[in-house]
Amino acid sequence: MVQKHVKISKLVKAFDFEVVYSGIDNLERKILLPTVHRVGAELTGFLVPGDELNKQLHVLGSEEMRYVDSLTSIDRKKRLKNYFSYNFPCIVVACEEEIHPDFIKYAVEHNKPLLTTKNKSAAIIRKLKYYLQRKLSPEIRLEGYTLIEISGVGVLISGYEDARIGTALELIERGNKYITDENLIVKKIGTGTLLGENGFDKSSTNTHFFIWSGSENIDITNNYGIVSTRNSKEINLFINLEKWDKKKFYDRLGIDRVYETFLGVDIPKLSIPVRKGRNLATIIETAAINERLKQIGLNSSEYFLEETKKLIAYNKSMNKGDKMKMKNLTVKQIVEEFDLKVVTGEDLLETTYVKKTTLHNPALALSGFYEVFHEIGAESVQLFSQGELNFLNSLDAQVRNENLGNFFNFDFPAMIIADAEEIQPCFIQLSREKNKIMLLSDKSSTQLTADLNQFLEKKFAQKITMHGVFVEMFGFGVLLTGKSGIGKSETALELIHRGHRLITDDKVTFYEDPSGIAVGKADKIPYFMELRGIGIIDIKALYGLGSVRKEKRLDAIIELKELKNDDYLTKKTSNGVEVEVLGHVVNHAELYISSGRNAATMIETTIMNLIAKKYGYDPKKAYKGRIRHAEFT
Asked: 139-295: which CATH architecture?
């Protein structure tokens, strides 16, 4: 095997070096190592044993040259003689000062090519290292691989050829940069770093980039412009496309990293299954951005797993031995939701639970009338306004203390005082003695009553959980359902890519809103999605805050089904069907997934059709009307 090399003459041309001494044919010497040695200790007389320095390109700068000049004549000649005894191929002096005559003398005597440049030594060393790594690094040539830059991430794609080429074209259409799918050269340019290059000569702008598709080459440069291509890119992610295997387990968490090794470098690897209804371009773009997040330390899978563990532990502690804690609404949650100030009972906030949706105004109880209080209000949150406080102030001190004492004997969870001007110290003291929770709010009692009622009704509303992906499209809340593996998450991902928004994935909790509608909300760990082959992804981190929302009214359910044959145009999609969710009627439709249908487009069309009907336009009636009109004209 012929060893790769760089001739010194190539360096002179590439870096515009000035040749101080070349000798006879010395510029045709070969540099074999992609490393550069910064001369230093050798000039002090310390000679490093071994053969490594004999093979490297040597560089010294202004500091070293001044050191040589500072030596006595005897020391300088002795040390230079020893230094030049090394059999290195060439030396570059990077400084603006004159090279010491003795240095030139010994270079000539030992037949060492001597080059110089005005560039600083640190800068020229960096450039030389990069140049030599590119030229001398170990390399392999790959066929059947496509390299594309996606959002700054170099993605190497292999596997299922038809899917690979078709996906590459769609990725290029979306504005990603194409390197090559033929004659791909992969180089190791550093520890843990691989560079992928187009192996064809691209030195001229007239040389076009091509991608092989079927029986012809598609001219990428001509069709998409020169901005859609680049000559090389560091490889950050390897994706293998494979035909869907129902028996195979595809990673849905993404916790365990899998790697593919090229030239001794491990590259993160994803195996993505190809099947009907999956938009691979969207999935691969998402995988690239997700890999970019991991590189900066944001691992969505690990974060999701840790938060899930915390949630499981919390739920266990909340439900342990107490059936009344099923709703898990603590006073602390109300304090945080409404930014209330805690006056007394701070240590009871996390262990005291609200069990009633109603609020109670304790005016009559404070007057000493308790005959119905224990039936309708004793277990509710007690809401005080300035009126109740004024009433207490009007009472005789003995009567007030007696009435408050009786009131505090009831087991209500907390009392909230709204927009109070002043609270009597005896009221606070008695609350503390009776171990009660007293809270303050800046809101008026009317506003606080309305807000608290709505909050409690939502918390204690009837709820159901449904499997699917809940998204917002054109202002409508749409639940995508279907059997496992049909492509719900992948379809939702493409909808998000088109500008629609995610509420939640996998399990959706619906409750009956006080206004009388079914509302779906995000889970306690919101905005994450599972994708086969990639694992857990964070939609908010990948696509931004505009791609998610907390909750949404349920307007339609679309069930995705698999079409067994390819003649999908003869299969009607069922529309006009309605189902009930929490007693509310919701539109329902079925969509059949096949290789010829883009599921996201079909869903968008279905929802737009539904919106049209809601506002009084029926396409079927309009079409029949036009047919009848055409028959009579």
From this structure: 3-Layer(aba) Sandwich (3.40)
